[in-house]
Design goal:
The complex is a heterodimer of chains A (173) and B (371). With 173 residues, chain A is α+β, with helices and mostly antiparallel strands. Chain A is built from three helices and eleven strands; from the N terminus they run αββαββββββαβββ. A three-stranded antiparallel β-sheet of chain B has the order 1-2-3. The longest helix of chain B has 29 residues. Classes of the chains: A alpha+beta (173), B alpha+beta (371). Chains A and B meet through strand 3 and helix 3 of A and strand 6, strand 7 and strand 8 of B.
Chain lengths: 173, 371
């Protein structure tokens, strides 16, 4: 079984600039570019050295590393910075794991969708779109999934403010 | 004479008894044949992930109880395991054993609900009562050590909140002795019942490649013939010390991966869980269950993904720490959520009444799907 370092070398040779770095962590992950995650996903699914058949989890994270400003109502608003999407893949045969991280701009969050490569990612991506407002290009059915379809805002962003009204009715929290 | 026909949208749920909670399915039907299923989730959304960002690490444990409320022990287990991975701490032997015993008892209790309610879904009421009678004993056992029957808040990061009470181990032994013959009774009553088999065999077939592609895990994946169980393939805690098998679907009554297989794998898993409990209960060492609980939980900056085999499949927690007292982000990978996403594929071109049977066999818990 290959280690994540060897996986990284192979990916680096195949994708050059699209694969940015290997980040050491408790579960080390590979940072890749947002516009090439679909090509990399296709590669690790079909290439014989990889054959990762199971997309375990796709998670969004608001890094909240932009500048924090206060608007006229006294609410904290974050401008600039990044959000991240983590991809956990698994190989069922020998339980090898590989993790990717993608950075997206907070102001214009766009990632290529892998929902048609790994169908498991479909609902995970919808959830991230719902809760973080990250757009997945080429997603077959990008709708909200947990929040009501007419909800405004994306609750898991760090500067999210509870709405005062929902459908014209005052909601007290 | 030719009759004019057209497709009809049929709404199933959110208060439909077979949706096991509040799930709404929008069925597109052509006569009795289902052409498309669109699930609408979110009726039980309680903002678990948002809540965790305002809570300290140890305060989140009772919230995890409420994810998959039929398997609270498993949820506790997954969460504390992830935080322990983040903190890089070891827990005492006794804690590991008690965790495994309670998690496996919980699996039995959870599968009993799954089997019982699945029986109700297809019209067999009596097995449900039998299952709940036996599950009651497990809940009583849990009540004795945790004080709660459902939402236990039993495990803590680095240990357990309570030790076992005197004589509890003997009660578990009594339970196993009592329960083994009851399983046979259940098989006679439901598993090999002709009506039940007719209703479930070769219905809603989920092929292995589709199951893997959709991220289906747990008994549903194994019913499709894939021998994958995290307890064996990536053993966590002390599962590598026990001898048990992984039951897979073999298509005994029809095709591999049909509704009956999904049911049957759960019955076989109960047996395997009994084996694990039997072995663990003999080896349980003495010790202090609270010895390794850290006074203050402040993990270093980093990310960790921890996972356990819950009764419904792979329960994963993805935790991002920024070095503070509260987690920066906790993402749950709920097994029911991923298992439900395949529902459209396996319901297509089946009868409306089969949708009820298929949904029952996926055994979803909406508390976990919606979080």
């Amino acid at each position: 079984m290959k280690t994540i370092n060897e996986f990284f070398e192979v990916l680096k040779n195949n994708f050059n600039d699209a694969v940015v770095e290997l980040k050491e962590d408790i579960d080390s992950y590979i940072v890749v570019k947002a516009d090439s995650i679909d090509k990399i996903a296709e590669f690790i699914k079909t290439n014989n050295d990889f054959k990762f058949d199971f997309c375990t989890c796709v998670s969004g994270v608001d890094d909240a590393n932009g500048t924090k400003n206060t608007d006229e109502n006294g609410n904290v608003v974050i401008n600039g910075g990044t959000m991240s999407v983590f991809y956990h893949f698994n190989r069922l045969v020998d339980d090898a794991k590989i993790i990717f991280r993608v950075y997206v701009e907070r102001e214009n969050p766009v990632v290529n969708s892998i929902a048609m490569i790994y169908r498991a990612a479909d609902w995970h991506e919808r959830e991230i779109f719902d809760l973080f407002g990250i757009n997945f290009t080429n997603h077959p059915d990008l709708r909200r999934i947990l929040m009501p379809y007419d909800w405004e805002g994306h609750p898991l962003r760090k500067d999210y403010k509870n709405p005062e009204f929902y459908q014209g009715i005052r909601v007290a929290y | 004479m030719s009759l004019k026909t057209e497709e009809l949208v049929l709404n199933m749920g959110p208060q439909h008894p077979s949706t096991h909670g509040v799930l709404r399915l929008e069925l597109l039907v052509d006569g009795e044949i289902v052409k498309n299923v669109i699930p609408h989730l979110g009726y039980l959304h309680r903002c678990f992930e948002k809540h965790t960002e305002a809570l300290q690490y140890f305060q989140i444990v009772p919230y995890t109880d409420r994810l998959d409320y039929l398997a609270s022990m498993g949820n506790n287990f997954g969460y504390v395991l992830t935080i322990e991975k983040l903190l890089k701490i070891e827990v005492p032997e006794r804690v590991e054993y008690i965790r495994v015993i309670t998690a496996e008892l919980q699996r039995i209790a959870s599968h009993l609900v799954a089997i019982g309610t699945f029986g109700i879904d297809v019209g067999a009421f009596t097995p449900f009562l039998f299952c709940f009678r036996d599950r009651e004993i497990i809940l009583n056992l849990f009540e004795e050590i945790t004080g709660a029957r459902f939402l236990y808040n039993f495990m803590a990061v680095g240990g357990l909140n309570y030790d076992l009470s005197n004589g509890w181990v003997d009660k578990v032994k009594d339970f196993i002795k009592y329960f083994r013959p009851k399983l046979k009774e259940l098989n006679d009553l439901l598993s090999f019942n002709k009506i039940f088999i007719e209703r479930t065999a070769s219905v809603g077939i989920l092929p292995a490649d589709m199951a893997i592609n959709y991220g289906v895990s747990g008994p549903m994946l194994r019913a499709s013939g894939v021998k994958y169980d995290i307890r064996k393939n990536d053993p966590y805690s002390i599962y590598n010390r026990f001898d048990f098998d992984i039951p897979v679907g073999q298509g005994l009554q029809g095709t591999v991966g049909d509704t009956w297989d999904r049911y049957w794998v759960r019955v076989l898993e109960i047996e395997e869980s009994l084996k694990i409990v039997e072995q663990a209960i003999e080896q349980i060492p003495e010790g202090d269950v609270k010895a390794a609980i850290p006074k203050k939980i402040k993990p270093p900056v980093g990310t960790a993904y921890g996972r356990v085999e819950n009764p419904r499949g792979e329960l994963g927690f993805f935790v991002v720490s920024d070095g503070g007292n509260n987690p920066f982000r906790v993402k749950v990978r709920p097994p029911s959520f991923c298992n439900l996403s395949v529902i459209n594929e396996i319901c297509k071109n089946n009868l409306v009444s089969d949708v009820v049977a298929i949904l029952g066999s996926t055994d979803i818990v909406l508390g976990e799907v919606d979080r």
